Each structure stands twice: as structure tokens, then as C-alpha cells.
Amino acid sequence: MLDTYREVITPEGVGLHLPAAGPVPRALAWGIDLAIRLGVLMIMGMVLAMLGKVGEGLYLIGLFLVFWAYPIVLESVWHGQTPGKKALGLRVVSADGAPVGWLAAITRNLLRTVDMLPFGYAAGLVACLADPHARRLGDMVAGTLVVHAGHEREHVPAPVNTVFVPSARLLPEEQGAIVAFGERAPQLTPSRQEELANLAEPVTGARGEAGVQRLYGMANWLLGRR
User: Fold this and answer.
1) If DSSP codes are grouped into helix, strand and coil, which group holds residue 2?
2) Cα–Cα dist 209/191, whole Å
3) What is the value of pTM for the model shown?
4) Secondary structure (3-state) at 218
5) Rounded Cα gap, residues 145 and 197, in angstroms
6) 170: closest CA among 124, 108, 120, 214?
7) What distance in Å separates the CA atoms of residue 7 and residue 96, rounded to the nearest whole number?
């Protein structure tokens, strides 16, 4: 509800927040990679044209490698990035936040043929818009996620100047949502904080700024800051 972050819990119990990338930066990264590949093919074509029939055969091999091996190899050995993703600050990771492996990279890239159906990545775009973490079909099958690299937010503690004891027993999911609000809300605008606090009015009994302060107070109480 707060944002498009995907939260995963490591076996050590540490929470990771993966900022999922939407279709626009991903499309721009793909466009950069396409331009690079076309440039490589153009140069390769001019050089191999001088070799006659042998050159034609080598060009076909190069064409296959540039369009299929390029993303698979780079994502597998270069921290989930291609030059396009690097330029846009994106990278591919496993759904649990681990580095993407060869099998996952092969799967997600081979399934581009499905995402491209019926034309122009239409199936992939629909999947991205429908999925809460903007995954195309290839990502769903491969168990991968495209995230903004280097922008994982650090948890910000809730302000400690107030403690508010809930008037009723909170369900586990309500406790989790309130603690998440206390950690993330300081990075949101005041209007967005109030918007979220209004949604929590049945729990806090207050709206607007008063609701925000009560949510912070509840977060502190749940975290033992008394």
C-alpha cells in the first residue's frame, strides 16, 4: 500500500526492500541495449562483408549471439545488468533479492518471445501493469525481478517523541503495517502521510496530522520505545 517495494525476509530474519522498476525505465534500458546491438551488428556486417560467403555465415552466428547471448551473459556475469540497465540504474535479481543465476537469466530472456506477443511487447506490458511488482511474463516464470540498483532505502526509525497505546488489540498484519509506516513514512511527503493515516482511521480514531502522530506513537509502542 505504501509503495512498490517488494519486501523479502532473509533466512537470517533481515528484511530487504527491493524497489521494483516500472515499465518506463525498463523500456528505456531495452532501447539503449537495442541501439548498442544494432551498432555492433552494423560494424560487424561491414567488416564481414569483405569475407564473402564465409562472412555471411559468421554474420548469422554473430546475429544470434548479439540478440540472445548479449542479455543472458551480461545479466549472469555483470551483477544482473546490461549496459542499458546500467545506464538507467536497474538490475535483475532473484525474487528473494539474491543475484540472478544463469538458469534464471536464460529463462527470462528466452521468454521475451512470449512477452513480445502479439506485437511490440504487448503481452509483457500488460503483465507489467497488472503485476504489483511490474514483472513481465519472463520474470514471473524465471522468478526474477528488475529493481532500481543502489536505491534501496535504509529504514528510518519512527520519531521517538511520542508513544500511543492502541485502544484495541491489533492483528499481526495491522502491527506490521503500523511499524512499516513508522519506518517509511519519514521519507514521504506530509500530504502522503496524512493520506495513509486517513486509511488507518478505524485503528487510530483520528485523521490528518493527528492520525499521523498516533501512527508514529503506535509504531514506537510496538517497537518497545516507551
Assistant:
1) coil
2) 9
3) 0.62
4) helix
5) 30
6) 214
7) 9
Residue 169's identity, in one-letter code, is R
Is the model's pLDDT at 220 over the cut of 80? yes
Q: What does the radius of gyration of the chain's CA atoms come to, in whole angstroms?
A: 23
Residues whose CB is less than 8 angstroms from the CB of residue 75 and which lie 6 or more positions away in sequence, other chains included: 81, 82, 85, 92, 100, 105, 109
Per the document, the length of the chain is 226
User: Cα(134)–Cα(122) distance, rounded to whole angstroms?
Assistant: 14
Instruction: Return the C-alpha cell found at 102.
Output: 544463469
Q: What is the 3-state secondary structure (H, E, C) of 35-49?
A: HHHHHHHHHHHHHHH
Query: Model confidence at 36, in pLDDT bands (50, 70, 90)?
Result: very high
DSSP sequence for 113-175 = HHHTTTTTTHHHHHHHHHSTT---HHHHHHTEEEEETT-PPPP-PPPSS-----SSPPPHHHH
Residue 200: all three cell numbers together: 488507518
Span 51-60, pLDDT tens digits:
888 889 999 9
Cα 53 → chain centroid: 45
